[in-house]
Amino acid sequence: MDNTETSTIFTKPLTIMLFVAVIAVGITGYFIGLNSRVSPISNTNVAPTITPKSIFSGVTQDFTDARNTQRQSDVREILSAITQYVSESGKSYSMLATIPTCTIDINQSAIIGTDGIDLEAELVPIYIVSIPLDPNSGTSANTGYRICTTGGRIQISAHDAEGGKVISVKR
Q1: Domain annotation covers residue 130
Q2: Residue 120 falls within a domain, yes or no?
Q3: What average pLDDT does the structure give for the chain?
Q4: Cα dihedral: 78, 82, 84, 86 (round 10)
Q5: Which of 38, 53, 156, 171 could form a Cys-Cys staple with 75, CB 3.0–4.6 A?
């Protein structure tokens, strides 16, 4: 048997440390959530039951939260770049493109990307390094972010936010 082959996931020490850290965070979060469980019959604390599903559900939630945090950062970054463009160039945001008015239906706002409103020509690299992409679904054609106006203000939204979150900023 040849022992020279190794699994590709564990070939780099940083990958191993990250994997262990993610599992540790999931386990810790699970225990913190269960420490307050009380039995309705005896009114005493109940020891938590650990299952692989319960450990990994905490880890999955951590990844969901991390992606939503990235989306929050991205929408702020896009809006800041547009605001800086307007401020420094002396142009109106309407010079970027025809931006639709916001409605209750987020799908009525315009896609940011080459399939919709392409902000790259005016904003990159002067006001933003690159147009951010949604961590799950973003492409240059459809970044996963949308733009619209409301009351003379620009609104940027992440329409693929997870866990029922609404991620939107306006200025």
Answers
A1: yes
A2: yes
A3: 80
A4: 180
A5: 156
CA 37 centroid distance within chain: 31
| Token pair listed for 31 | 């225990």
In a domain, 152, yes or no: yes
d(CA 128, CA 144): 17
Encode pLDDT of 38-59 as tens digits. Answer: 545 555 555 555 565 555 556 6
How many domains are contained in the chain?
1
For residue 148, what are the contacts with CB-CB under 8 A and spacing of at least 6? 99, 100, 101, 102, 103, 108, 109, 110, 154, 155, 157
- pLDDT score recorded for residue 7: 47
Helix (H) or strand (E) holding 146: strand 145-150
pTM: 0.66
Question: What angle do the packed helices 13-34 and 52-89 form, to 10 degrees?
Answer: 110
Q: How many residues does the chain have?
A: 171
Q: What is the mean pLDDT of residues 104-121?
A: 89
**Residue range(s) defining the domain that contains residue 59:** 51-170
Per-residue model confidence (pLDDT) at position 104? 82
- Using the 8-state DSSP alphabet, how is residue 121 labeled? H
